[in-house]
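Changelog note: in this version the structure field was regenerated for every chain. One regenerated record is shown below for reference.
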Amino acid sequence: MDVKFNNRDPVYVQVIRHFKEQIATGTFEAGQEIPSRRELANQLKINPNTAQRAYKEMEEQGLIFTEGNLPSRITKDAQVLKMVREELILEAVNTFVHSVRSINVPVHEALDLVKNSYERENN
């Protein structure tokens, strides 16, 4: 597992985002077993308390679940999985919209540029 941490956001938030990205791209599948908190801390070279905080937050958000002493797993809830993907897409769209509005790009021009760039990227 390779995560590039930045200095702006708390590490636990970046760990959660990494998990969301892995879920959205299908790298982590519904019901898939994930590393223990201690294993994750060792893999990412972060404090075990940080890994614990990230897992606790992900459990509260319904992204992962833990049953008894069994390993934690990615949720099987299709609605939660769909919402994760939509959240990441919306975040990217909002960032883009904010950027192009600040330089007064008309919406039709922005959409044309996005479409062209998207199609180029897929070829």
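Spot check on this record: The mean pLDDT is 94. The longest strand covers residues 64-65.
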